[in-house]
Amino acid sequence: MVKQQAFFRCKNLSVSFWNSYWMLPSDVCGMNCFWEAAFRYNFMKNQPAEKMHLAVVACGERLEETVTMLRSAIIFSVKPLQFHIFAEEQLHSRFRVTLDGFPYQGKHNYTLYPITFPTESAAEWKKLFKPCASQRLFLPLILRDVDSLLYVDTDILFLRPVDDIWSFLKKFNSTQIAAMAPEHEEPRIGWYNRFARHPYYGKTGINSGVMLMNMTRIRRKYFKNDMTTARLQWEEILMPLLKKYKLNITWGDQDLLNIIFFHNPESLFVFPCQWNYRPDHCIYGSNCKEAEEEGIFILHGNRGVYHDDKQPTFRAIYEAVKNHSFGKDLVHSLLQPLELELQRTMHTYCGRIYKVFIKQLTKSIGDVGIRRSKGS
């Protein structure tokens, strides 16, 4: 009987895994302490690791960029990743061919989805800002079985494990439902505070290229707004918001998110600029202090800088990640050639601080083996 009680107490994990055997009640431990401890160790050891969910929306000529982003996520991440890829139908077969050739099958998985908007307003959403861009607004309504999600634009590169930005979810207070970085650090070059014709979050607005969401909370929340005295749920607020502001918005769905969080500022967790580092942080001089001190964690190559010669520092990192072969030594095949390439970009403002670009990357490469062996 004692042994049976111990078994079920352990199986349900109602007894803390960390409790020393002499702190457990006598009816659980007793003569079966050794057996119970071994059982609990094996039970926890055999549990599947928590998956991190990452979503991206790809249309047009964004396949290569998306695949490069996914590569960067795989290179450094510790816990398994589940990719949710929303793409035009004609891109699906090319995604499958490429992603099925990636190593680590079974640890990292992907699901392809068509681009989907509400039927009655699909045409309006499709033409908002860029093709498919507003798809991200509907992720909480499409991925109803997903509790939390990291959305990123296709032009994102992870220079640090996804695990680390994912950990911000545990730092949310009881009112916070999403996390984003400011649009600008320097108000003198800010866009929203100088040109916006609609409400926006904080002093300079927020950038939605990296957006961490507790989607369960998003689906449950009733949002304050300036259209009605009644609070509206996510699926109720989007279309009325578009109708009211469509002639006043420039950056599409990002503007709508700024309006939502202007009225609900308590719902947003703001993370530092190094988690969404863009050309604006260096092309007029360095203005992301956190990146200067600790390095860049997530690189965001907006304005097409991965594909032209205007910002060669950004392009060099993109090319290095794109061309890296899985399984090769990261120091000799990625970091060292990249540093040589970055030294050739010192004629630009961003290139002058090229060491900021590889500070965290160097640390990530040094830590990746240790973190994976520990599983954290």
TrEMBL record:
One of its GO terms (molecular function) is UDP-D-xylose:beta-D-glucoside alpha-1,3-D-xylosyltransferase activity. Keywords: Glycoprotein, Glycosyltransferase, Membrane, Signal-anchor, Transferase, Transmembrane, Transmembrane helix. The keyword Zinc does not apply. It comes from the Eukaryota. It is found in: Membrane. Its EC number is 2.4.2.42. It holds the Pfam family Glyco_transf_8. GO terms for biological process: protein O-linked glycosylation via N-acetyl-galactosamine. It is a single-pass type II membrane protein. InterPro entries: Glyco_trans_8, Glycosyltransferase_8, Nucleotide-diphossugar_trans. It catalyses: 3-O-(beta-D-glucosyl)-L-seryl-[EGF-like domain protein] + UDP-alpha-D-xylose = 3-O-[alpha-D-xylosyl-(1->3)-beta-D-glucosyl]-L-seryl-[EGF-like domain protein] + UDP + H(+). PANTHER family: GLUCOSIDE XYLOSYLTRANSFERASE 1, IP22168P. Belongs to the glycosyltransferase 8 family. Glycosyltransferase which elongates the O-linked glucose attached to EGF-like repeats in the extracellular domain of Notch proteins by catalyzing the addition of xylose. This is Glucoside xylosyltransferase 1. The gene is GXYLT1.
